[in-house]
Amino acid sequence: MTERLDLRQRQGLHGADYVARYRRKSPLRLCRLVDLMTASRSQGLQGADVVDFGCGDAVIVEYIRDKVSTYKGVDFSAEFIQVANQRKAALKASNVDFSCDSITHFGRQHRDCFDIGFSFDLSEHVYDDEWQEIVNSMYSCLRPGGHLYLHTPNADFLLEIMKKHNFLLKQFPEHIAVRNVQENCHFLAEAGFEDVSAQVIPHYNIARIVHPLSLLPWVGKYFQARLFITAKKPMTA
């Protein structure tokens, strides 16, 4: 069994080197995620107060700042927040703000504040017990009727299975908890979310060429690379 990393060790994994690698993320990935969020809500992103949990360098701001009313990004990495603030200044984005904080602490300070929350490629970096606390905090941040969107690798994808067993491929050291559909949705239901649903989407690198195989019977699930999960906070919450 892999030794559990403490918070300091995980923060070290998300330092300057990781920030530099993260900045090379595919624009295709972000465009696709913005489109999925927009399509799943009747009014799209227009006029919404949004919170980006685990915002990283906040490159998504470039795609949504003219759509949303306000954008708030939160991340525990000071290096990421520094880059995010540089981006804000370059864009002269007055409706954008960032907090260098844990999501659980942020959640206690921002109850019922946002119409939309999203967390892209974060959950796989967090152990189960901590992830449930984080999802609970996400829930508390949303206004009744608010929407949450998650994007994460799928543990049932063939390449993820190979990484798990160190067969030809090695898992990213930051990816300590890649989960499947059922496992991801369980955390949301436990937090109180309703209308939890997941759709499989292609990878955004060369691995996307195998996505058509996801339609095959019996073995299709092994070619479903990525998950886009939606959930809603009940109006009566």
What features would you describe in this structure?
The mean pLDDT is 89. This protein has nine helices and seven strands, in the order αααβαβαβαβαβααββ. The chain has one domain: Rossmann fold (3-Layer(aba) Sandwich), CATH 3.40.50. By secondary structure, the chain is of the alpha/beta class. It has a seven-stranded mixed beta sheet, sandwiched between helices. α6 packs parallel to α7 and α7 packs across α9.
Question: What is this structure, in a nutshell?
Answer:
This protein is of the alpha/beta class and 237 residues long.
CATH architecture: 3-Layer(aba) Sandwich
Radius of gyration: 17 Å
Helix and strand composition category: alpha/beta
| Poorly predicted tracts of residues | none
CATH superfamily: Vaccinia Virus protein VP39
Measured by DSSP, the beta-strand proportion falls in: 15-25%
Taken from the alpha-carbon principal axes, the silhouette is globular
The domain count comes to 1
Give the number of helices.
9
For the biggest sheet, the summary is: 7 strands, mixed
What is the class in the CATH system?
Answer: Alpha Beta
CATH topology: Rossmann fold
Element order: H for helix, E for strand: HHHEHEHEHEHEHHEE
- What do the pLDDT scores average to? 89
Q: What order do the strands of the largest sheet run in, or round the barrel if closed?
A: 3-2-1-4-5-7-6
Distance between the ends: 39 Å
Q: How many runs of DSSP E, i.e. beta strands? A: 7
Q: State the share of residues found in helices, binned by percent.
A: 25-40%
